[in-house]
Amino acid sequence: MDDRVLALCELNNDLLFHKIPPEALSAYVDSSLAAGSDAAAAFTGRDIEELYREHGIRISYADSGKQSYGVILRGQVTMSVRECAVEVYRESIEELSRHSTWEGRSLTYDEALHVHLAHEFFHFWEYKSGGAVSERLPGVETFSFLGLRRTAKINRCSEVAAHAFAKELLGLPCLPNLYDYLYLIDTGKMERAAFDGLISEMAALLL
Fold this sequence. Notes:
The structure is a single chain. The chain is an alpha+beta fold and 207 residues long. The protein has one domain (3-205). The chain is built from 9 helices and 7 strands. The protein has helices at residues 3-11, 25-41, 48-54, 90-98, 109-129, 133-136, 156-170, 177-186, 192-205, and strands at residues 58-62, 67-68, 71-72, 75-79, 84-89, 140-145, 148-152. The strands form 3 sheets. It has a 3-stranded mixed beta sheet. The longest helix has 21 residues, at 109-129.
């Protein structure tokens, strides 16, 4: 599965995706992927749970996941001057593991857990570094009238970067948002045909 296409699938979830000029899509995708991969290079060979301990990020566990607009969340994050902590919902991680089969292989529970932890560690790293990836990339024009112009950032660029970070740090075969789609398909929340159509649509935009 092409990482650039999966990255664009993630950007497609941004409320301002339609504001990105078609000719700029590749730049947003490539810059976001590079930001995540470059950050991961600084931690090559490191264990993600060890990184949490080293940086003082507390991990706690709850049995059941919470829901937001019908979507089961895998955890909850607190980032502040006083505390950085991640609460993990075991049931949600187990569900991801059970419904993650790709090319004949599924994630183990520990692998699914580490995907989640690596993703959130990248956001912690953004926070500590003083700037989200989305803030570093150009904004898109959201309003223009009589010389007045307003721009906004594409927040999902940070999510793409977090996916790329997790992939590189953990040695995954693809961007881990693929596992989100596999979960949706396997649990009947998304038709396989709809996913295939999305992949084809996003691939065409990158040609």
